[in-house]
Design brief:
Helix content is about 20%, strand content about 50%. The protein has a ten-stranded antiparallel barrel with strand order 1-2-3-4-5-6-7-8-9-10. A hairpin with a 5-residue loop joins strand 3 and strand 4. With about 200 residues, the protein is of the alpha+beta class.
Length: about 200
């Protein structure tokens, strides 16, 4: 009983804090409507990613061996279009799930920066993403003087992304590639929300 009371108290505190925000900001804080609109406007430029995608992919394991999978992606907006959610799922030849990742793409109007926060295979991180006219680039630190760079190009209904290991003083070494085709629009994640009754 004490645990339930504590949880309900925490939920109540969070709700009160959220409800108090508009009045606090009205007294000289940032313009929440302008911030939200800036986020939504920025995310509209990445609408080319939205939909359901399927195709082939391969990755190199730590042993250097290539592993081929069937890769799927479902991508769509949430929070009134102010963020974008991405789920990638790779299937082995026997139909089992060999890879599963989840990401949140967001734009910060204050710093004018994009971030991709991702979770995959027990790892989590927040990474800088740079939009391009026909795709994006993002990088992951990979040890001293090394990074992994992912470069995506989306043209119409084709979506290609490659991953390269970049070590200082060495040529790029490709470790990943996926080539997808858009199979249709996606109602995810916006559809199916719980209504008031």
């Amino acid at each position: 009983m004490k645990k339930n009371s504590f949880v309900l108290g925490c939920i109540g505190f969070v709700l009160q804090a959220c409800l108090a925000l508009p009045s606090a900001y009205a007294q000289g804080g940032p313009d929440l409507a302008a911030t939200l609109n800036a986020q939504k406007d920025a995310l509209k430029t990445m609408a080319f990613m939205d939909g359901e995608w399927r195709g082939s992919a391969w990755t190199l394991g730590r042993d250097g061996k290539r592993h081929d999978i069937t890769q799927t992606e479902r991508i769509g907006p949430l929070l009134d279009g102010s963020i974008k959610l991405i789920e990638g799922r790779g299937y082995n030849a026997d139909g089992s799930t060999g890879f599963n990742a989840f990401g949140v793409l967001a734009f910060d109007p204050t710093t004018k920066t994009w971030t991709l926060t991702s979770w995959a295979q027990g790892h989590q991180g927040e990474f800088v993403l740079t939009p391009k006219p026909d795709g994006y680039v993002w990088t992951i630190p990979a040890g001293p003087n090394a990074t992994i760079r992912y470069t995506a190009v989306v043209k119409g209904d084709t979506y290609k992304e490659i991953g390269e290991y970049l070590a200082e003083g060495k040529p790029p070494h490709q470790t990943f590639e996926m080539n997808l085709t858009r199979v249709g629009p996606s109602a995810w994640p916006g559809a199916g929300g719980l209504g008031p009754k």
